[in-house]
Design a protein that fits this description.
18 helices; about 400 residues; about 0% strand; 2 domains; globular
């Protein structure tokens, strides 16, 4: 490590102001601070609040995402192997089939390693494509603006693959990344200045621009052409809860062994991430609790009302929790410290709004059974307004108290 530190220090003058590679300083600084602690120190009188910075915050969120990533690898491969066995196919075909045949693990759905390998062959290309595109954009904007590369995309680059179907074309994943990072963050000033969640902005763009590749029955399972695997929410919206109950148990849905976006299916993995975020003080328990209260409470009320024409009214609150991306969105998306509400009271109002809208979109609009994405983006837009009125209310109360 001393050799590497010495090499970086020797190369630094070439990238600093006046050096021949001055324009590439953001890229050099990103590599340096990723491998070593930044050498800069604050001079003069300082007020230290805590020891966390942006890099540590993003790394903590990345650690909290590890359980969902592991589950994404396993469940994507499990669904693919299950589909291959049900179709009687002997190989996945293409380069993935060649790799699996070379390793020799086969396509047994009961083999965890076989499922994880098959899932990794779908997840990793999307992960790499998203991060390459996002990294290029981050470095480009940093070079133009003359500041260091922010670590904000570290989390965005992990979230985007997790909220996409496994067989999405790589060029679409890269296009969605570009749209989310540029129009969801960079045009507003970059990390810390965006009012929309960049990952959800990119996914929303893909949903409305290319609905055939990110919705429907045929995109949720990594399997040969001709196999369809609708999400449970899609089945419930079309035919009610009866066929859902025939396909899976509540515990299977809780664990995440169901079709869906790669990282959104396991509530258990999301709960582990929630514990890490709350314990580290990065994720707001107020937002998480408020989202669940708003979503499950409104689901319970609509379930009591019932409807003869809308099958989604049959879904109880316990199923709303384990189907779709409610748990993932609650833990990792709604709690985004930049785009969510900032005040304590505002976090509760914001969370209740997101939860209520999630259920409302799911139940009232069967054509769009997954409502958490639009609900969080809608909440992002109103978060500043919520905080504004909370602050104004607090000011009025203090004025009245001390008159």
């Amino acid at each position: 490590m001393k050799f590497l530190r010495g090499a970086l220090d020797k190369a630094a003058p070439n990238f600093e102001k006046g050096g021949k590679f001055e324009k590439m300083y953001p890229l050099f600084e990103a590599m340096d601070t990723f491998m070593f602690t930044p050498p800069d120190t604050t001079k003069g009188s300082t007020h230290v609040r805590d020891g966390i910075d942006l890099k540590r915050l993003m790394i903590t969120v990345a650690v909290a995402l590890i359980p969902t990533i592991l589950m994404a690898l396993y469940n994507t491969g499990y669904q693919a192997n299950l589909a291959l066995v049900s179709m009687g196919a002997e190989s996945a075909g293409g380069w993935r089939g060649w790799v699996i045949d070379l390793v020799g693990l086969g396509y047994d759905p009961g083999n965890i390693l076989a499922c994880a390998l098959h899932g990794a062959l779908y997840f990793l290309p999307i992960f790499l494509a998203v991060n390459v595109m996002g990294g290029i954009i981050e470095v480009t904007f940093a070079s133009i603006r003359g500041h260091e590369v922010n670590e904000g995309f570290l989390v965005t680059g992990m979230l985007l693959p997790l909220i996409m179907p496994p067989d999405i074309p790589l060029w679409q994943a890269m296009l969605g990344t570009a749209f989310g990072v540029i129009f969801g963050k960079e045009i507003f000033g970059g990390t810390g200045k965006n009012f929309l969640n960049p990952a959800l902005t990119g996914r929303a763009f893909l949903y409305f621009a290319y609905p055939a590749q990110i919705s429907g029955d045929a995109v949720w399972t990594a399997a040969p052409d001709g196999f369809t695997g609708a999400t449970a929410l899609g089945v419930a919206a079309a035919d009610g809860m009866a066929p859902v109950l025939e396909q899976m148990t509540w515990m299977e849905a809780f664990l995440g062994r169901i079709p869906g976006s790669m990282g959104e299916t396991s509530v258990l993995a999301c709960l582990i991430g929630a514990v890490i975020l709350i314990a580290s003080g990065i994720g707001s328990w107020r937002i998480m609790l408020a989202v669940l209260v708003g979503a499950l409470g409104s689901a319970w009320g609509l379930n009591l009302i019932g409807s003869e024409t809308n099958p989604m009214f049959q879904m109880g609150p316990e199923w709303h929790l384990v189907l779709g991306g409610l748990a993932f969105g609650t833990v990792f998306m709604a709690t985004d410290p930049v785009s969510a509400a900032f005040t304590d009271t505002g976090k509760i109002v914001y969370g209740l709004l997101v939860g209520f809208l999630t259920t409302l979109i799911r139940v009232i609009n069967p054509a769009f059974p997954e409502g958490v994405m639009l609900a969080i983006l809608f909440g992002n837009v109103f978060a500043p307004v919520i905080d504004y009125y909370v602050v104004r209310s607090n000011i009025k109360k203090r004025v009245a108290r001390y008159v």
